[in-house]
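Data availability (excerpt). All sequences and predicted token strings are deposited with the supplementary files. A representative entry, Putative glutathionine S-transferase, is shown inline so that the format can be inspected without opening the archive.
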Amino acid sequence: MIRFYYHPTPNPAKIALFLEEAGLSYEAVPIDTSKGEQHAPAFRRINPNGKLPAIVDTDGPGGQEARVFDSTAILLYLAEKTDRFLGTDADRPELLSWLMFLGTGLGPFSGQAVHFQYAAPGGLDYAVNRYRRETERHYQVLNDHLEGRSFVVGEDYTIADMSAWGWLDRAPRVMKGSDTPLAPWPNLARFMNLMNARPAVARARAVMTTHTFKTEMDVQALRALYPSNFPA
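Structure token line:
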């Protein structure tokens, strides 16, 4: 059994998609980050970094319980555990490269673009521009790579596609002010149409809506989400 700790944000959505695609037995455990539940000692024992997603696999290597955190690490762990969505052996170098590109580039820059456009104080035009432009640059790199391709790596659907879907699905929020956020990147738009046609994508989205999370951005939420802004 896999316990899947999540909040309805892009990185956990990737893991929900894998779990649904693979048909694994799992328990979805909501962690309300706006209430600060990610800082609870019990959760910090699972992920010392206090972020989502995380999993606990009660049937890990050698039959021992295993904890895994960070969405890229979880995707690799689950793919290797099930021997699914890894592509061919020849695809491995490309798979690792694109997973790191998505996990350390497109994802973080998209997240910071969202933060500075919606959550940061006004007057930070440099930061807004920096993260929007870098997100757009990452979009362009992936768009160019997908020219004439259906999948990010090789000839088959892999965890790289799941990883790309997680943040590209939030393009309307990342590209604030645009009604057609992927229009400048037609290969990304085509890729997302293919992804959204997958039945497991609809099931993964449903997982994200099974719990009512706190949405009010009050002082409690700000302290929980951005504790470094509130030194003790």
